[in-house]
Automatic annotation (TrEMBL):
The keyword Transmembrane helix applies. Keywords: Membrane, Transmembrane, Transmembrane helix. CDD domains: FReD. Residues 224-233 have a biased composition (Basic and acidic residues). The keyword Protein biosynthesis does not apply. It comes from Pavo cristatus. Pfam families: Fibrinogen_C. This is Fibrinogen C-terminal domain-containing protein. SMART domains: FBG.
Amino acid sequence: MRSPHPLQRALQVPLPLQPHGSACQREPRAAAMVTQCLLLLACVLVLAAPGLSVPAQTLNTFEKTFSNTSLKKNSWPKDCSEISAGSPSGVYVIQPSGLHPIVVYCEMNVTGGGWTVIQRNRRNTDITWAESWSTYKYGFGNVRSDYWLGTEYIHQIAKQKVYQVRFVIHDASDNVRFAEYNLFSLDNESQGYRLRLGSYAGTAGDAMDSDNPSNTHNNMKFSTQDRDQDTSRKNCASHSGGGWWFSSCYSVRLNFKGGMTWGSLCKGDCKSSLILIKPALYR
Ligand SMILES: *[C@@H]1O[C@H](CO)[C@@H](O)[C@H](O)[C@H]1NC(C)=O
Ligand SMILES: *[C@@H]1O[C@H](CO)[C@@H](O)[C@H](O)[C@H]1NC(C)=O
Ligand SMILES: *[C@@H]1O[C@H](CO)[C@@H](O)[C@H](O)[C@H]1NC(C)=O
């Protein structure tokens, strides 16, 4: 019996036992081969997508993964903090526990590196941000420019360990400000992806956790125009154009086309935003 293809081994695709090749055995084998081909195709597409500059590290990981005969079950990093120190910022494949592999941008050059980028936006963005619940759930945009990673994926990543979050804001005069919360998690979808933040440190101001219940974001559920879970009588996501943890309605609006808002730092004229997460104890 020929030994399994390394890719098949890597991706844990079961190879049916095959000695006689009767019709009822050929079926699952064909199915496994189709699965194998699709996975191979997916990997090739991920690595060869036009315009994506895949850092050498990704390719190294890829080669190591598929040439190693004693593979562990999970071959991809669980988040960007598991990518080896010194790797460049760029597009990587990660696989959070219990989830399929996903493509993310890893920021390896900000305060120690290892940050998984969950949101990036610029004032002159191409994307509208006025998307539905399910589009927010699984993410949209371009991982190399402006994007939302996906509310479900953010939840899945952040439930693996204790996470922290860092918001990086370019204000109207192009000063770089940041806000860090030492805890970050999202409740699951049936709990409305409610946001849980720890305590603030930074230079941008504690705008996510305002004392005013009508414009705070900490402990709020996520709302989109087609799923209004805010604390307002109106639909904040419809009025404001994008999905967010609205109360009634906001002091921070980053998922928006045409100038973002961060508290009193920049009201509708922030130039860019970046939201980064990594395990709280990671160094
Ligand atoms: C293959 O995997 C094993 C166990 O995970 C590891 O110890 C070994 O260094 C790996 N070999 C290569 C060539 O990456
Ligand atoms: C990494 O950050 C340092 C200091 O902030 C900066 O000088 C350098 O250009 C950055 N490197 C890359 C590749 O962005
Ligand atoms: C969502 O979270 C709640 C509270 O932690 C839990 O009771 C519920 O089982 C979870 N639902 C799913 C679908 O995981």
